Amino acid sequence: MIDGQRITLGGREFVAPPVPFSCMRRFADVFEGRASPTVEVMADIVFAALKRNYPDLDQKTFEDECLDVGNLNLAFMAVMQASNAKEDNPPGEAQAGSQ
């Protein structure tokens, strides 16, 4: 088990480790604070991190049973913190200078 942030999603406890490098590369703009993620990107990032500790986790089942409107942002922020990513532009907030 890779150490990370403990989170409860859909009544199930997970340890969310840092994301794998392949995910960080794929979503570099988000990890470097240059772009705000869509909900789809947030879910993909959370799943990529959790898959490291839970290799049998199925993405569709995870999204249907564990993720919801109320906990996606919490899960995303836990993964970003575990990954030491920049958090200059949290989801839902405009970037500086944008209108």
Give the % helix.
Answer: 40-55%
Write down the overall mean pLDDT.
87
The profile of the biggest β sheet is: 2 strands, antiparallel
Please provide the ordered H/E string of secondary-structure elements.
EEHHHHH
Shape: globular
Strand count: 2
Structural class: mainly alpha
Oligomerization: single chain
Distance between the termini: 43 Å
Largest beta sheet: what is the strand line-up?
Answer: 1-2
Structure notes:
The structure is a single chain. 43% of the residues lie in helices and 10% in strands. With 99 residues, it is mainly alpha-helical. Strands 1-2 form a two-stranded antiparallel ribbon. Helix 3 (39-53) packs across helix 5 (72-82). The termini are far apart.
Pick out its properties.
mainly alpha, 5 helices, 99 residues, disordered C terminus, two-stranded antiparallel ribbon, single chain, globular
Give a quick precis of the structure.
By secondary structure, the protein is mainly α. It is built from five helices and two strands.
List the helices and strands and how they pair.
Elements: E1 5-9, E2 12-16, H1 21-26, H2 28-31, H3 39-53, H4 59-65, H5 72-82
Antiparallel strand pairs: 1-2
Helix pairs in contact: 3-5
